[in-house]
Specification:
Strand content: 5-15%
Helix content: 40-55%
Number of helices: 23
Oligomer: single chain
Largest sheet: 8 strands, mixed
Number of domains: 3
Bound molecules: phosphoenolpyruvate, magnesium ion
Shape: globular
Strand order of the largest sheet: 1-8-7-3-4-5-6-2
Amino acid sequence: MSFTLHGLAVSHGIAIGHAHLVSHALIEVEHYVLPGRYVDEEIARFGQAVAEVQGELDALMAGADANAPSELTAFIDLHHMLLADPMLIESTRELIRARRCNAEWALVQQMEQLVEQFEQIEDEYLRERKADVVQVVERVLKVLMGHPGHPPRHGKGEHLIVVAHDLSPADTLQFKQLKIGGFVTDLGGATSHTAIVARSLAIPAVVGLHHARHLIREDDMLVIDGTRGVLIVDPDARVLEEYRLRKSALELERAKLKRLKKSRAATLDGVDIELTANIELPGDIPQVKAVDAAGIGLFRTEFLFLNRDGMPDEEEQFEAYRSVAAAMEGRPVVIRTLDIGADKNLRGVERLETNPALGQRAIRYCLAEPQVFLTQLRAMLRASHHGRIRLLVPMLAHAHEIEQTLALVEQAKAQLRARGQAFDEGIEIGGMVEIPAAALALGVFLQKLDFLSIGTNDLIQYTLAIDRTDEAVAHLYDPLHPAVLRLIAHTIQAGARAGLPVAVCGEMAGDPKLTRLLLGMGLRQFSMHPAQILEVKQEVLRSDLAQLRRKVTRLLNCDEPAKLRQQLERLNAI
Ligand code: PEP
Ligand code: MG
């Protein structure tokens, strides 16, 4: 039966394909439906893996000497108990039988249900035991993966649409290696990092669908309309045909845009506008080259730290930064220091903060962990010898954070001098303006830093007190709120007066409906995911700055949302 779900449009385009249900955070386990005749064999494979882990635990217990801490034996007992728990083991068997899932996938689904139940428990000690459930499951998965079952069916990969309750940015990052047609999730906000990665992959996505994961079954036919935020399940032939036509029309439009690749990005009245790219990994460079971006305006380095145990060392980071700088052949590369925390966490160190977006994130984390920060700074500085690198520091609010950061940069430089390693002595250091306090008290930013970059995603989150990952408040996340617009305009103008370059590198920079508004505020540097650059360039080419300025000044004085939107529409129509 056909039905439609409405969510938040986060990544444009249309995807048509079959549903593939995945589990949160363990996307790397294979998911496939077994032919009926293999089900008994799969249940036996699962049973063997559980028995093998029980054997491992017995051996651990036998090896523990009499002085072993009581925690060790308690933990082994607990893991034994979990391995005998019908909620985990029996239910996994039932799932393999009923839904014909492979054992790894069934086990992960069962684990998630259990973890969810643990999360509801009031008692903190018991709630924490969910980590033991995950550890036991990981042990069994390791054994299962050493003895793989039947491989997934072939030939479907190209059109799979991932359906998940939630996806972390780290999960989404793995789509870069897989051929995924699109994805939908129950949770998530439009500027969550998960959504940002989807846009950077240029794959259609809808988030905040609430019940998609429960309503959709493996292999259901799906249509994602990523522009309208609509998901159609099991569409009838007529709807399917209409969407196939729309998809081809969109592809044609995209192909036409490619003609703009080599055009100079300048307004009708001849002002050059810098359009640079946001990247997450060095592997994104081909996309940047495909649109001939003027440089990299934001390299979100924290993605090098996700999906792995331990952190990349100085050499590994240096190689990543050097390779990006070298690939850009003299064009500027803005590398942002680690913005970990909130929705991007290092493996194994998820912190139980009540408000992670307000917690120890980004520069706050780096200043609390100076050795991690110094390692990164040395790697970045060394890479600056191989290209035009500038450093960007996220989440600054206080003068002392700027001062401490600059002192640590000096320390990293001194360490490199002592080692005799070369770097750009005059490397420029910039700050992100993404906390309202920073935008309102720019003085110290203007005095101590070399450039500014406005992170509108967080600036909106913190100005409007909206968690950008929470779909329940997503309707309140408004880039056009007068307070947000005034903070952006004020920052651009203050930068211009002080002679400091100002860029916007949040998602607003890549939205062609906002290009003229930002141009009219005086913005000359836009940084966005490469998939948006040509569309924004098209807007730049059609814009006349002299006309825009007056109209935007009027718009900025408008307090009524409806009128403001009308004025924006008029601005885009001239
Ligand atoms: C922003 O906040 O706008 C930004 C560019 O940084 P991020 O999205 O990585 O938080
Ligand atoms: Mg930010």
